[in-house]
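Work Package 4 report. The design task specified in the project plan requires that, given a folded chain encoded as structure tokens, an amino acid be chosen for each position. We show below one input record used in the internal validation round.
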């Protein structure tokens, strides 16, 4: 029954197309060709295992927290992304790369040690905020990555860890060097 109704709708729609009908088939073939050609576009992977500037080289990072962030954050916020099989399918990969690139522009744990103290401190503040407000990890990510769904207790331990790092930095640096100013 349902099928008949939608079939009717389709016929009506098809009727509206009138003389445009002759473009439908070439358009579909065109789309298909673009989709097929797109599969040949294979961008480089974000896969470097260089840990020399990792956050853990300048701040204490317990294994338990590292593991949580490995599951929930590093795919978009480090130089070592674990790619799912469907990353081989375009345009899915383009969409994934968009998140990885944008995520790393904002926060990259692999190169964290390179940043100025004030930037590092600010990023820790942002981590507390983003994890507390459940903005991170991204919903589209936890939808497909069950192990990245953080429980309240897990969120708390990431927040507590980031706050401990901020305290560590406060003890290491003069207060005004942790204030983020525009590079001038
Ligand atoms: C699927 C990719 C993805 C995952 C997984 C992810 N993020 Fe993000 N993150 C992004 C993107 C994209 C942005 C920038 C756009 C935005 O703010 O929404 C961002 C922004 C941020 C920012 C803001 C940085 C700034 O200075 O503005 C913080 C902090 C952050 N993420 C922390 C985390 C933490 C902590 C986790 C793990 C619990 C995590 N993210 C997991 C993609 C991701």
């Amino acid at each position: 029954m349902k099928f008949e109704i939608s079939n009717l709708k389709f016929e009506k729609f098809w009727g509206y197309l009138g003389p445009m009908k002759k473009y439908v088939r070439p358009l579909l073939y065109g789309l298909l060709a673009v989709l097929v050609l797109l599969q040949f576009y294979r961008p480089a992977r974000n896969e470097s295992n260089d840990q020399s500037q990792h956050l853990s080289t300048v701040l204490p990072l317990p294994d338990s927290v590292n593991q949580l962030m490995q599951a929930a954050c590093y795919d978009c916020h480090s130089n070592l992304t674990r790619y799912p099989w469907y990353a081989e399918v375009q345009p899915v990969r383009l969409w994934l790369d968009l998140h990885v690139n944008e995520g790393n522009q904002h926060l990259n744990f692999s190169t964290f040690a390179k940043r100025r103290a004030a930037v590092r401190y600010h990023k820790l503040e942002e981590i507390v905020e983003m994890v507390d407000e459940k903005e991170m990890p991204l919903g589209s990510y936890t939808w497909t990555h069950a192990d990245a769904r953080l429980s309240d207790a897990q969120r708390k331990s990431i927040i507590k860890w980031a706050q401990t790092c901020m305290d560590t930095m406060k003890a290491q640096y003069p207060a005004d060097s942790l204030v983020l100013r525009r590079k001038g």
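Residues 69, 72-73, 75-77, 99, 102-103, 106-107, 123, 126-127, 130-131, 136-138, 141 surround heme C (CB under 6 Å). Validation will be extended to a larger panel in the next phase.
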